[in-house]
Design a protein that fits this description.
β9 and β10 form a beta hairpin. A seven-stranded mixed beta sheet has the order 2-8-7-6-5-3-4, with helices on both faces. A four-stranded antiparallel beta sheet has the order 9-10-13-12. It has a two-stranded parallel ribbon with strand order 1-11. By secondary structure, it is of the alpha/beta class. About 45% of the residues lie in helices and about 15% in strands. The model has no long low-confidence stretch (mean pLDDT about 95). The longest helix has 20 residues. It has two domains: about 230 residues, 3-Layer(aba) Sandwich (Aspartate Aminotransferase, domain 2), CATH 3.40.640.10; about 90 residues, Aspartate Aminotransferase, domain 1 (Alpha-Beta Complex), CATH 3.90.1150. It has 15 helices and 13 strands. It binds pyridoxal-5'-phosphate (PLP). Pyridoxal-5'-phosphate binds next to α4.
């Protein structure tokens, strides 16, 4: 029941910096990153570039700004970006590709959120003066709206072969690439090797308060540096934030496996509740489908909130719960019990 504390499963972005992270931020050496580098930001950028096997990485205030910078680096106005229909870049970035870079986004629906080499090959436009040229293929790993699904390295490699043959660059929205790495055991550099630009987030799952990075070739990042600044993303003493990111990379990466185990536990327990259907997640995002037609998802959310448990609606009959640094085993038991009570009470009405 409600013990006065909140269990926030709405997103893995809701985490608060830990004591160790705050101390690292407090101690951070800083400078003016727009003028001549902030030393801690530079250290974070070098660390992420190395992890992803790229020449250079740049620190951004947000994943959206980093994704949109990548789109601006690769695209020309009037050209087309191919992505999966559930992609964050298509659904949740405020139409930025069109507004900021004049790009046409071409969403390709798939059953499970995963692009395949065949789907990409079919979507790439043949050269013609009558159709917009394809300027980029963007993939998302893990795939947020597909319930944290992992795009297998092998599929990514086959997609890479298709885009290489067509002479088109590949961008990887890896907001949760760390989750895919921990779950598959592949190092980030294996994914990095297959994409021209890679965006990774520090503020989802890894528990940093702010920050994402875009990595790629030195030449692409030189262009990205200007675009970032144009978008207002040039930060000054950003080392305070970068220190949190370095701490997160050191101490919060391996533990993502715990979030995945808890997400699976939540899914297993919730799927035993009458009226719910829950697929076993691959990483930390659990999608709960409300089958009982007389039960409104909004009312389930209200009931959960009355017990201090927060989830979000994700589609007309679907709820989303995300595990993260601030959710422990007790939290999973609490969420499951609250869900069972919600479904029982609302079904009985
Ligand atoms: C897959 C994906 N890409 C990009 C973003 C954008 O990140 P931000 O909220 O830091 O702009 C998100 C945010 O949840 C995401 O899930």
């Amino acid at each position: 029941m409600n013990d006065g504390t909140l269990l926030d499963l709405r997103s893995d972005t809701v985490t608060r910096p830990t004591q160790g992270m705050r101390e690292a931020m407090f101690r951070a050496e800083v400078g003016d990153d727009v003028l001549d580098h902030d030393p801690t930001t530079l250290a974070l950028e070098e660390r992420v570039a190395e992890l992803l096997g790229k020449e250079r990485a740049l620190f951004f205030p947000s994943g959206i700004q980093a994704n949109q910078t990548a789109l601006a680096v690769h695209g020309r106005p009037g050209s087309e970006v191919i992505l999966e229909a559930g992609a964050h870049i298509f659904n949740y970035e405020e139409g930025a590709g069109a507004v900021l870079s004049g790009l046409q986004l071409r969403p390709v629906p798939t059953e499970d959120g995963l692009l395949t080499p065949h789907v990409v090959r079919e979507a790439i436009r043949p050269p013609s003066p009558y159709v917009p040229p394809t300027c980029l293929v963007a993939v998302e790993n893990t795939h947020n709206s597909a319930g944290g699904r992992i795009l297998p390295l092998r599929t990514l490699s086959e997609i890479r072969d298709v885009v290489l043959a067509a002479g088109i660059p590949l961008h990887l929205d890896g907001a949760r690439l760390w989750h895919a790495c921990v779950e598959t055991g592949h190092p980030p550099s294996h994914y990095g090797a297959l994409a021209d630009t890679v965006m990774v987030c520090l503020s989802k799952g890894l528990g940093a308060p702010v920050g994402s990075l875009l990595a790629g070739s030195a030449e692409a990042m030189e262009r990205a540096w200007r675009i970032r600044r144009r978008l207002g993303g040039g930060m000054r003493q950003s080392g305070i934030l970068a220190a949190a990111g370095l701490y997160a990379l050191d101490f919060h990466r391996d533990r993502l496996a715990e979030d995945h185990a808890r997400a699976r536990e939540l899914a297993r327990a919730a799927s035993a509740i009458p009226g719910l259907r829950v697929d076993l997640p691959e990483t930390n995002i659990v999608m709960l489908d409300i089958l009982a037609e007389d039960v409104s998802p909004g009312k389930v959310l209200d009931h959960l909130a009355s017990e201090g448990v927060l989830m979000v609606q994700f589609g007309s009959r679907r709820l989303r719960a995300v595990t993260h640094l601030d959710v422990d085993d007790q939290g999973i038991l609490r969420a499951t019990a609250a869900l069972a009570r919600a479904m029982e009470r609302l079904s009985a009405l």
